[in-house]
């Protein structure tokens, strides 16, 4: 195994070497290599944490790539996150994995537990000048077959998942026959989508003795001649599937039959992606809506959902005069939200969004409704809808009318959950939407500073061309990059983003302006909408400065990480941008070529952001 | 022919959802979408047109309409040579907002800025909807403030090109040196698609917008 991982390491090294040679400019290669090397070092050390020999070899190879290894190693160890839970995409270890899976991890195959290996090869996809022909070919053939394969197995997952598929209301109409759509095959919410990364493994590297102990159904579902044709791919797919199953099992281990859910563990594992089967629950936990104490969850949901209903009743009653401009603005924007996704064209969806956004705006007068918030509400909404769909239908959530599979009351529950989670999210980025939008301006400024340090040539080029960061980055901050990516990619990104929300949120649910103290959950008058004086006032008035302090603390975490993601996103196109003038730069950044992005691409981006954040921690100290 | 190309930096202002982005989309791509996402921050687009002998390149900043984003607007109109102040003829509130923008431009923008007042969505009235802003009222404002005035439909394309042509004719052309100082990145010639606003003679507008 040590030898094998070593040889694939060599293979990857060759690839990054050729990146240097064929490169269009040397300028950016050093930074690319730095990232690449770091990723390798972290990956190797994680995948070999149980066996020592590979570690040595990875060290050697790193030194030969980049003499700066020692310095980086220090960076790596000293790069402690400010958050009390230091976790890293690289540090994720997979103790429970079978032999074959860990082989897979070090062999460069994308897997959910070791998503980082794919990074090295995906780099090439984005550097237009450095395409390898064989690489592209494999990507095409492998990718297609693999996705078909995933589709076949959707049923198998559901079979497995159904057993412990959360305390979810039964689908009212018994489920809908979902027409197979291409989307299903992309399995957009499973943490690992097969891509070109598999090509980094030479066929010999596939463990020939591999069998499918965990997946008995696999053999049954594939005809034998197809199997002989796809043997190699199948084995790799099986490994990936295995990894996914393992991953689901890990989430189960954290979530099921626990009195208190270990939030830190959950954040760590969720950073690398949450299986769609668990996403709704996990998001609610990460954002601090659901309490970690599972005994309290049902009661809390019940209460919050009632509170939401009471809130609606209140603002739509005669006692409350309608805020016409706000209502009107939301009314205009709701049909303009995700106009390319069928789900958002249905009346039921639009009514939901209208209610959620209006209630939120009324309850947060300091910011009120701001365009962009209508975007932020949608990942929650459609993720929570999937709780009412069977595993095989989940990928179809964007095409189905909610009315066709849930009752009005259930839809209200979805709305309520969406409302509270949106509230929680926006608490962390309040400054983005209040008057003058200081949060956004600060982030844009920080982004400029950061790019100046990371990629000075690009920064200078922008200056020469009179490109100002605010001209393209305002939207990046205002909509958390949602406008830049397809929904599937955004949702994967949010797994990480919600893991980045500071843990204080969860541990101090009581501090939220909207929650009654948890010690008195059964107190009958705890549903708070009856006392508008307290609950409908601006955030500043309600109880005290301690709350503000904590909310300040919380605000830094996600915002800061997001700036690094934006930096990584911008620098990704650095080579191209260097050859563009003002007009081309702005046009390009307004329409970045991300339509075809897969989860692995976004994972690459998030990992890069993480690394920049570790390396440039000092840059953020005066960001306050 | 280099000397024949002039850039015009133009900004669109107006309340949210009056159709700023739709007007630009019609002008640049001769297209229309029923539900356009709200603009966040501002969007940049360009279009070249021939006006008589001249090739004019419009460099357009399409700003976001919501009040909360208004503080960004000065950045975009500061160096603009022309502005479209857009309102929706079925929304009186949007006309009030337009008045404010005209005032702000006169106070804050560069002195010689050419402003066109644009009442959009006339197609709604044509198809039986109710007009809420009288044409006379807008004409009066335009006259008082020295504005060009148009009523348009981004949906049908009606009068959209005329707005830009009107602006182009008002801007002192053929003196690119005077404007170059204002341009971001300067003027560059590319072979991008252009529409010919004056193919049938100076002042006439080619029927590139569909009139369905
Ligand atoms: N009937 C009709 N609808 C239009 C017309 N122009 C725009 N619309 C519609 O009005 C809505 C808003 O149009 P946008 O172009 O996005 O408006 P905007 O001014 O750019 O809005 P913001 O970006 O939010 O400031 C969209 O749903 C358009 O389809 C028009 O001429 N006629
Ligand atoms: Mg717009």
Automatic annotation (TrEMBL), chain A:
Positions with biased composition (Polar residues): 1-15, 523-540
Subcellular location: Golgi apparatus, Golgi stack
InterPro entries xrefs: Rab-GAP-TBC_dom, Rab-GAP_TBC_sf
Domain Rab-GAP TBC: start-end pairs: 273-501
MF (Gene Ontology): GTPase activator activity
Biased segments, Low complexity type: 16-33, 45-58, 81-112, 187-199
Keywords: GTPase activation
Entry GO terms, CC: Golgi stack
Segments traversing the membrane: none
Amino acid composition bias (Basic residues), ranges on this chain: 123-137
SMART domains in the cross-refs: TBC
UniProt-listed Pfam families: RabGAP-TBC
Superkingdom classification of source: Eukaryota
Region (Disordered): 1-145, 182-211, 508-548
PANTHER family: LD44506P, TBC1 DOMAIN FAMILY MEMBER GTPASE-ACTIVATING PROTEIN
Protein name in UniProt: Rab-GAP TBC domain-containing protein
Species of origin: Zygotorulaspora mrakii (Zygosaccharomyces mrakii)
TrEMBL record, chain B:
Phylogenetic placement of the source organism: Eukaryota, Fungi, Dikarya, Ascomycota, Saccharomycotina
Protein's name according to its UniProt entry: Vacuolar protein sorting-associated protein 21
GO molecular function: GTP binding; GTPase activity
Record carries keyword Methyltransferase: no
CDD domains linked: Rab5_related (cd01860)
Keywords of this entry: Nucleotide-binding
InterPro entries documented for this protein: P-loop_NTPase, Small_GTP-bd, Small_GTPase
UniProt cross-references to PANTHER family, sorted A to Z: PTHR47978
Domain of life (superkingdom): Eukaryota
Gene3D superfamilies the UniProt entry points to: P-loop containing nucleotide triphosphate hydrolases
Organism: Zygotorulaspora mrakii (Zygosaccharomyces mrakii)
């Amino acid at each position: 195994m040590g030898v094998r991982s070593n040889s694939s390491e060599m293979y990857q090294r060759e690839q990054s070497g050729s990146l240097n040679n064929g490169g269009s400019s040397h300028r950016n290669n050093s930074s690319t290599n730095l990232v690449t090397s770091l990723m390798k070092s972290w990956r190797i050390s994680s995948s070999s944490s149980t066996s020592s020999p590979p570690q040595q070899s990875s060290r050697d190879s790193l030194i030969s790539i980049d003499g700066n290894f020692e310095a980086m190693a220090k960076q790596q160890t000293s790069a402690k996150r400010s958050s009390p839970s230091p976790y890293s995409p690289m540090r994720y270890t997979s103790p429970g994995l079978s032999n074959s899976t860990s082989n897979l991890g070090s062999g460069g195959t994308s897997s959910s537990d070791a998503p980082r290996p794919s990074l090295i090869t995906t780099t090439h996809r984005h550097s237009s000048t450095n395409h390898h022909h064989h690489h592209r070919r494999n990507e095409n053939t492998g990718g297609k077959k693999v996705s078909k394969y995933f589709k076949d197995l959707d049923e198998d997952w559901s079979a497995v998942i159904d057993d412990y598929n959360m305390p979810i209301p039964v689908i009212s109409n018994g489920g809908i026959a979902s027409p197979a759509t291409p989307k299903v095959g992309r399995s957009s919410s499973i943490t690992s989508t097969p891509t070109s990364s598999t090509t980094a493994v030479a066929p010999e590297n596939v463990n020939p003795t591999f069998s499918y102990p965990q997946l008995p159904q696999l053999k049954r579902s594939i005809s034998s001649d197809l199997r002989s044709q796809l043997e190699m791919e199948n084995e790799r797919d099986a490994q990936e599937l295995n990894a996914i199953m393992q991953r689901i099992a890990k989430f189960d281990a954290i979530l099921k039959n626990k009195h208190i859910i270990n939030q830190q563990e959950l954040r760590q594992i969720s950073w690398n992606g949450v299986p769609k089967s668990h996403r709704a629950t996990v998001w609610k936990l990460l954002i601090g809506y659901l309490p970690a104490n599972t005994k309290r969850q049902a009661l809390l949901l019940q209460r919050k959902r009632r509170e939401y209903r009471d809130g609606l009743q209140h603002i739509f009653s005669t006692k409350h005069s309608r805020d016409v401009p706000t209502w009107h603005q939301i009314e205009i924007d709701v049909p303009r939200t995700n106009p390319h996704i069928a789900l958002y064209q249905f009346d039921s969806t639009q009514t939901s969004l209208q209610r959620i956004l209006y209630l939120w705006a009324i309850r947060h007068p300091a910011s009120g409704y701001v365009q962009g918030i209508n975007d932020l509400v949608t990942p929650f909404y459609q993720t929570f809808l999937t709780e009412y769909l069977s595993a095989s239908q989940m990928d179809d959530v964007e095409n189905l009318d909610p009315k066709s599979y849930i009752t009005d009351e259930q839809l209200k529950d979805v709305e309520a959950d969406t409302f509270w989670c949106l509230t929680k999210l926006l608490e962390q980025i309040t400054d983005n939407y209040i008057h003058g939008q200081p949060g956004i301006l600060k982030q844009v400024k920080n982004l400029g500073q950061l790019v100046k340090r990371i990629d000075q040539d690009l920064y200078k080029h922008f200056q020469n061309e009179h490109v100002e960061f605010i001209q393209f980055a305002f939207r990046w901050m205002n909509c958390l990059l949602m406008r830049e990516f397809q929904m599937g990619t955004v949702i994967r990104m949010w797994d990480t983003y919600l893991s980045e929300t500071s843990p204080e949120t969860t541990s101090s649910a009581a501090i939220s302006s909207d929650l009654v103290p948890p010690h008195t959950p059964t107190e009958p008058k705890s549903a708070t909408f009856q006392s508008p004086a307290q609950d409908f006032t601006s955030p500043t008035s309600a109880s005290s400065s301690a709350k503000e302090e904590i909310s300040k603390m919380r605000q830094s975490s996600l915002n800061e990480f997001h700036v690094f993601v934006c930096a990584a996103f911008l620098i990704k196109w650095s080579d191209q941008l260097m050859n563009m003038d003002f007009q081309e730069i702005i046009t390009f950044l307004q329409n970045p070529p991300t339509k075809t992005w897969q989860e692995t691409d976004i994972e690459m981006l998030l990992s890069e952001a993480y690394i920049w954040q570790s390396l440039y921690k000092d840059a953020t100290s005066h960001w306050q | 022919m280099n000397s024949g190309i002039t850039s015009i930096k133009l900004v669109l202002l107006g309340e949210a959802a009056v159709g700023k982005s739709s007007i630009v989309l019609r002008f640049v791509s001769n297209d229309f979408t029923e539900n356009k996402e709200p603009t966040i921050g501002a969007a940049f687009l360009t279009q070249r047109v021939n006006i008589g002998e001249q090739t004019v390149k419009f460099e357009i900043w399409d700003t976001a309409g919501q009040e909360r984003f208004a503080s960004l607007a000065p950045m975009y109109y500061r160096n603009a040579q022309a502005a479209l102040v857009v309102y929706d003829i079925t929304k009186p509130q949007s006309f009030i907002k337009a008045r404010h923008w005209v005032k702000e431009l006169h106070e804050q923008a560069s002195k010689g800025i050419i402003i066109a007042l644009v009442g959009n969505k006339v197609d709604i009235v044509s198809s039986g909807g109710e007009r809420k802003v009288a044409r006379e009222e807008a004409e009066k404002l335009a006259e008082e403030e020295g504005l060009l005035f148009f009523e348009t439909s981004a949906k049908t394309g009606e009068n959209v090109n005329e707005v830009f042509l009107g602006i182009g004719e008002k801007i002192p052309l053929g003196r690119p040196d005077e404007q170059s100082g204002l341009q971001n990145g300067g003027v560059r010639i590319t072979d991008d698609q252009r529409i010919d606003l004056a193919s049938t003679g100076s002042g006439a507008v080619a029927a590139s917008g569909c009139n369905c």
